Amino acid sequence: MKAAVIEALGHVPVYADFPEPEPRDEAVVATVEAAALTNLTRGLVAGTHYGSSGLTLPGVAGLDGVARLADGRRVYGFAVSPYGMMAERTLIAPARSVELPDGIDPVLAAAAPNPGVSAWVSLQHAAQIGRSSTCWCWGPPASPVHWRFSSPKPSSEQGGWWPSGATPTGSTGCAVPVPTR
Q: Does residue 66 sit in helix, strand or coil?
């Protein structure tokens, strides 16, 4: 199969053939629909992230994204090393993935978690927002920051995708109960 192959840290991945993934442990082969290109992925490939030393080389770039399982379900999840999401197929653990609803754009689903998780980490750790807190999320109703706080549920009367528990406050934001661990 074709993939963005990392041959050495600090070098640009090469579009090349890579061995087909085979199921192992809890991981199954899935067809990639969209891969997230994040600063984390870029840092790992560049060799500048502290996790770079843990990469198996050669390997495939791309930590997370959207893939279709053999049974037809589409999921957002993380690839199992040395397979990444920037390939035709990858290894993914369905039990550690989130099933996506029909109709959601796979590119949006692959891209949305990165800014959403960044916002959540900032709110929980830097701002120390707790379990009973409510925060104001400023942005369009379907923005990634809304998407992360809890599982999205479609609501036509609210104009699109809103997290469960969110209170719409007009066309530019919503108040979202903040989950913590």
A: strand
